[in-house]
Specification:
Layout: H1 3-16, E1 57-60, H2 87-99, E2 105-109, H3 116-132, E3 139-143, H4 150-159, E4 162-164, H5 172-178, H6 184-207, E5 219-225, H7 232-246, E6 250-255, H8 274-289, H9 294-297, H10 311-318, E7 325-326, H11 332-335, H12 343-352, H13 360-365, H14 370-373, E8 377-378, H15 390-400
Parallel strand pairs: 1-2, 2-3, 3-4, 4-5, 5-6, 7-8
Helix pairs in contact: 2-3, 3-4, 4-6, 7-8
Length: 416
């Protein structure tokens, strides 16, 4: 690579690290045209210590931007070095890095050049060139620019595996405060358009096998947390609404990294809320896969997630009247709510107890987090319900384990 391309890559890859919504699961694009790459559910990822996925070539098309969002490092008033790739440069980088086995696909976002359509057209051109000229079958995730035309969004869905529109702030009030040039309606409109287009595409594929894929990995969004005073209750209600109303594949939570001297934002040096971010992901998982409702996880009396313990344990401690659970009799829906027992462990328990009664030894062999689950289950005569206070159980569990979430901020991994 030339020195200029290397410099651009350094600037625009660094600017892209603040966008965490780059997971590439959910697509199944097969290489059946003797092309390059193959995106599938088993695609490999590399992760930084804080859990961010960096297996894709994750860059901005440009960090020039006409907007002045206070929370964004690329805002127009920020005195930083600017750069912009051409469409062909991004295509060449993707192909060359893929051939060298550095990446599994492309995550491409951008600042806004002149207007939404002008920028979106260039993002679409990158994906189209990769698919048509290079027969690239690897994973492509494109950021949809709020305010872009439906025609461009639809074309993007024909070439990309996943599209995402960042909602950015949890509430309209916070968006108006920190990004007064932006409109929440410009973010919600393409979400609805994508939902309808994805549903329509699935119906057409049932009738016509030759129907081209349209955003097979669905759509996602991201919101910044910790920059404004919203509670976890407000954040999770919004996320729950996205899942139900727009069939969102994922909602990502990005802990705000203080990058600006602005009295509307936390001061530079304020710790990134990594633990809170992690708890929100855990709560999100409970809503999506464990059957929990938002009001079970957080409510008006407890609007914030406990940072010391995970949301499932927190729920259990607030509802000790439901425990202990007899794992030899209880249904799957009850067992999966026991702290220390995940989905696979609950399935194993339900399968194993068909052959014999399970005791503590069996449960430990099944791989549950026994030191946590033992306070909430009964399985044999060695168990007896003890009149523990919730704070006592919490202290016992905290003494037996250490959180891996220390105060830490890891830079994006470098390609060289």
């Amino acid at each position: 690579m030339s020195d200029r391309i290397t410099e651009k890559l350094s600037i625009l890859a660094d600017a892209a690290k603040y966008d965490v919504s780059c997971a590439s699961s959910g697509s199944d694009r097969k290489n059946n045209n003797n092309g390059l790459g193959n995106a599938s559910n088993g695609i490999c990822h590399a992760y930084t210590e804080d859990g961010r996925c960096v297996s894709l070539l994750k860059i901005l098309l440009t960090n020039h931007c006409i907007f002045d969002c206070a929370y964004c490092v690329s805002r127009k008033s920020n005195d930083i070095k600017r750069a912009a790739f051409t469409v062909q440069e991004v295509v060449d980088l993707t192909i060359n890095f893929y051939r060298r086995n550095y990446i599994e696909g492309l995550f491409l976002s951008s600042g806004i050049f002149k207007n939404a359509d002008y920028t979106m057209e260039r993002l679409v051109s990158v994906a189209k060139k990769l698919r048509t000229e290079h027969k690239f079958n690897g994973y492509i995730h494109l950021k949809t620019i709020p305010g872009a035309s439906d025609e461009l969004v639809k074309e993007a869905g024909l070439w990309a595996d996943r599209l995402s529109i960042n909602v950015e702030m949890p509430t309209e009030k916070s968006l108006a405060l920190l990004a007064p040039d932006k409109n929440r309606a410009d973010m919600l409109k393409p979400m609805q358009f994508l939902k309808d287009a994805i549903i329509q595409n699935k119906e057409e594929k049932k009738l016509f096998a030759s129907t081209p894929m349209f955003a097979p990995a669905g759509q996602s969004t991201q919101m910044v947390i910790g920059a404004t005073p919203e509670t976890d209750l407000e954040i999770l209600w919004l996320a729950n609404g996205f899942y139900k109303k727009f069939n969102m594949r994922r909602v990502y939570y990005s802990g705000y990294v203080p990058i600006s001297n602005d009295n509307r934002l936390p001061a530079i040096g304020t710790p990134v809320p990594m633990i809170r971010e992690n708890r929100l992901y855990q709560a999100d998982w409970l809503m999506r896969f464990y059957g929990f409702k938002v009001q079970e996880i957080v409510n008006h009396e407890n609007p914030l997630l406990d940072t010391d313990i995970d949301p499932k344990l927190s729920w259990a401690l607030r509802n000790l009247q439901l425990f202990p659970v007899d794992i030899n009799k209880a249904g799957y829906e009850v067992i999966v709510r026991i702290p220390g027992i995940g989905i696979q462990s609950a399935q194993k328990i339900c399968a194993a107890r068909k052959f014999r009664r399970l005791n503590s030894t069996h449960l430990q062999k099944l791989g549950i987090a026994y030191n946590r689950a033992k306070y909430f289950i009964s399985s044999d005569t060695e168990f007896e319900k003890k009149d523990w206070h919730p704070n006592q159980i919490k202290s016992f569990i905290l003494k037996e384990g250490n959180s891996k979430y220390e105060a830490n901020f890891s830079p994006q991994l470098k390609l060289f």
